[in-house]
Amino acid sequence: MDITKVIIPAAGHGTRFLPWTKSVPKEMLPVLDKPAMQYIIEEAIRSGIKTISVVSSKSKQVLENHFDINHSLELFLKEQNKSHLLSRLEKIINAIQFTYVRQHEALGLGHAVWTARHTIGKEYFGVILPDELFFSKEPGLLQLMNIARQERASVVAVQEVPMETISSFGIIGIKKQFTPKLFQVSKLVEKPSQKEAPSNLAMIGRYVLSHKLFDSLEKVGSYALTELNLPDGINHMLQQGEKVFAYKIQGTRYDIGKPVGWIKAIIGMALQDPRYAQQISAFLQNNTNVSLSLLCNQSGKKQI
Fold first, then answer.
1. CB 103 within 8 A of CB 115
2. CA-based nearest residue to 142, from 122, 157, 129, 130
3. Which residues are registered as beta bridge partners of 201?
4. Per residue in 84-124, pLDDT tens?
5. What pTM does this model have?
6. Exposed end of the chain (fewer CB within 10 Å): N or C?
7. How far apart are CA 191 and CA 88, in angstroms?
8. Where are the domains of the chain?
């Protein structure tokens, strides 16, 4: 099974990061020395992807500009003997064929994926949500691609989440468990209550899906009242007899869809980077002591 294409839905407004996202897409939020979107693209390349369809909106032309050649900047850097500053980006531009698809209305994740249907043939393809960063020896998407090839079926990435946070995720129902990491899916439930949740395995932003999803999204969309959700399309595939698996993805995950998650990602990644680790560790140590002292003062206890 040849899987060489990915869809990246990136048309959201990013309201949680306003006013920053009034003029700069949330996908371009800096995480250490490069924008979040670049990590996503690099994961796709490491997974063997050759073609990426970015679903964006009219306010996100900066995404196209970042993954394009800037001759004047390259000439300037060459004159300053600093060409190496763009070397990683040049490798991306040379490795990937980019297609940009406009989503004219924000009608849900399923609609965003469906909008790029003409870029996918009769094949399996990946979907990467740019709000989720994964770091592991084997890229997160590649882990799913391997399962898709093994089972010849669609696969969604999952991780265990605390029950008190269950209503923030799409949750899988388990039809059969094959290994501690691999499950056959019976259904997907979007943001259930704790009582309604069929498990504590949440979908987390990586998918490898059959092209049959597009027909399912189209049929589901004919009676969708407001938004077309991706789990609804996957559920329709299940109802039509398609197999869908869930794989407990291995690695470190950062949810950068909210400011706190973005901050955690920067700190966590800085602590793993030899360029920053020592300084950030010392900074955290010092400020942790100060914070504990302030908390003790406010509660009327002795300082630690």
1. yes
2. 157
3. 160
4. 778 888 888 889 999 999 988 888 899 999 999 999 999 99
5. 0.89
6. C
7. 38
8. 5-273, 279-304
Give the pLDDT confidence of 125-154 residue by residue, as tens digits.
999 999 999 999 999 999 999 999 999 999
Superfamily of domain 5-273: Spore Coat Polysaccharide Biosynthesis Protein SpsA; Chain A (3.90.550.10)
- Token couple for 9: 């839905």
- Give residue for tokens 């973005």: 262
pLDDT tens digit at each of 304 positions of the chain: 899 999 999 988 888 888 888 888 889 999 998 999 999 999 999 999 999 999 998 878 888 888 888 888 888 878 788 787 788 888 888 899 999 999 888 888 999 999 999 999 999 999 999 999 999 999 999 999 999 999 999 999 999 999 999 999 999 999 999 999 999 999 999 999 999 999 999 999 999 999 999 999 999 877 665 788 999 999 999 999 999 999 999 999 999 999 999 999 999 999 999 999 999 888 888 877 655 454 444 444 433 3
Residue labelled with tokens 């914070």: 291
- Secondary structure of the chain as H, E, C letters: CCCCEEEEECCCCCHHHCCHHHCCCHHHCEECCEEHHHHHHHHHHHCCCCEEEEEECCCCHHHHHHCCCCHHHHHHHHHCCCHHHHHHHHHHHHHCEEEEEECCCCCCHHHHHHHCHHHCCCCCEEEECCCEEEECCCCHHHHHHHHHHHHCCEEEEEEECCHHHHHHCEEEEEEEECCCCEEEEEEEEECCCCCCCCCCEEEEEEEEECCHHHHHHHHHHCCCCCCCCHHHHHHHHHHCCCCEEEEECCCEEEECCCHHHHHHHHHHHHHHCCCCHHHHHHHHHHHHHHHHHHHHHHHCCCCC
The label of the residue with tokens 């468990």 reads: 177
